[in-house]
Design brief:
This is Enoyl reductase (ER) domain-containing protein. Keywords: Oxidoreductase. InterPro entries: ADH-like_C, ADH_N_2, GroES-like_sf, MDR_fam, NAD(P)-bd_dom_sf. This protein has about 350 residues and is an alpha/beta fold. The protein folds into 2 domains: about 160 residues, Medium-chain alcohol dehydrogenases, catalytic domain (Quinone Oxidoreductase, Chain A, domain 1); about 140 residues, Rossmann fold (3-Layer(aba) Sandwich), CATH 3.40.50. The protein is about 25% helix and about 25% strand. Strands 1, 2, 3, 4, 5, 12 and 13 form a 7-stranded mixed beta sheet that branches. Helix 1 crosses helix 3 and helix 5 packs parallel to helix 6. The longest helix has 19 residues. It binds NADPH dihydro-nicotinamide-adenine-dinucleotide phosphate. NADPH dihydro-nicotinamide-adenine-dinucleotide phosphate (NDP) binds next to helix 1, helix 3, helix 9 and strand 13.
Length: about 350
Amino acid sequence: IYVKHPTGYYEPGVHTKYVEEQLDTDTVPLNGGILVKILAISSDPYMRHRMRDENIPLFAPPLKIGEPLDNFSVGKVIRSEDPAYAPGDYVSGYFTFENYVVHPGNITHVFKFCTKIPKLPGLPMSAFVGILGMPGKTAYQGWLFAKEKAKTSKTLYISVAAGAVGTFLIEYVKTIHPHLKIIASAGTPAKIDLLKSIGADVAFNYKETDIAKVLAEHGPIDIYWDNASGSTLDAALCNMSTFGLIVSCGAISSYNEDQGAVKHFEKVFERSLSIHGFIVGIGDEAKRALVEFEKEIPPLVLAGKIKLREHRFYGLKSAEQALRSVHTGENFGKAVVIVDEE
Ligand code: NDP
């Protein structure tokens, strides 16, 4: 249950609380919908955005004080009054943080949806909140803006590269544009090793290194995938090549605290840069991208070209720790709460 808006970092037990209530899964009214046993819940950085005053407009709906949190999840249908679903079906949806959820069934809205998903060989269902879910779709949709430019580019810099979006992007880009030199940054030595092992040509720890210096040495940067904003974006702006492209995906350095201003915005006109921002799943472009994603990505995942890397938190109660981990950097791979057995 969401109980208080944070200022600064979200704290388990302070801004959310865990409560237990009994639900009779045999008799709970479904009102024409379905009863879903939740298997896995995603923990994503943007959840911090949702912890805010309801009157401040943003792309995602704010969490409401006194109500359960919700996010991208996967589950199994236990009972159904909707002819489109049968018990035993696996579903992906935007569900509340509970063990069992009653859902109205077929909704397509990005922050309310529910849709059937297949069981794929060798993959846990939690893959549908990671490489086959929102973070994978984010990397795929955003890269469509860079795909054409990538053909004639030499260098790509990715910040927050060891996260769910960044690791997908590195492996995907290495598959379709092997000529690109990938420069990647993350915050621990283990994450730097991971980045090198999955195809980053240059990997560095942004906490211990002068970002601008590394980019000057290995750049100029033709494409910058910005997951960080703040001082990281500033360092990138100063090292972009003329006609460079910045894909603005996220701004995690500003979600909890102010980590540096963008001081060199003038580089945008000085170097004729383009900036393309986007939100996954929003807009017609996104809808087209998702159709392509379904065709192109599952075969790459099944062939092991894009690998599942999860940081698993076990039990519904661990959702609080999972939510915090993506801001402290504790997660090594996609942060996911494993709620129940498949
Ligand atoms: P993950 O949840 O996998 O990982 C988050 C990582 O961010 C942490 O592990 C930590 O790693 C890093 N981090 C935390 N604070 C900072 C900081 N101040 N500066 C730099 N890195 C920091 O992340 P995702 O891959 O899911 O998300 C990456 C970005 O993409 C986020 O900005 C997110 O908001 C954005 N996003 C945007 C979407 C869109 O539609 N535009 C959709 C999904 C994600 P480390 O140890 O390296 O510091």
